[in-house]
Amino acid sequence: MAEEKKKTLGRRRTECKLIDNKAAREVTFSKRHRGMFRKASELAILCGAEVAIITFSPHGNPFVFGHPSPDAVINRYLSGGVINQASEAAAAAALHTVNERKKQYEDAVSKLEEVSRVEIEAGKRRAAAGNSDGRMWWNEDVDDGMGLEELLYYADSLERLMKMVADRVGSKPRA
Length: 175
Prior knowledge:
Layout: H1 22-47, E1 51-56, E2 62-67, H2 70-78, H3 85-129, H4 148-171
Antiparallel strand pairs: 1-2
């Protein structure tokens, strides 16, 4: 059997020394500091560790990562490892707030999906009814099987339309 020559060099370990090219150094910093923060986040999540990283870019810009927060980890380090009850309570309160906001967001998304579904169904019914005579939606018969939710949406749409017309009429210069 003849040995086949490799087509690529494969993954190679880079020598750990200062990168001479300034642009390449900045690109490497940008990529590597994000990777370092990602690994620190994984360590904190997987092991429950408290982590803080502070690094400065070649331009002198600070980048900070901390879990539960950089301040909490640094304060714990400076106090000799004593857990600060106030920072523990603040972290718990922040987590509770995040969970509340997440629930509010999920509820809003659910409501939006429901409204979209109702609107799509109403549009399908209007299309199936055959609006071939060129009438506009506000000229449609209201009592053709609309549900309460659709009627409320219809009434709200009419009110918005009337307000837009009134605003447009009121904003035109008088002759």
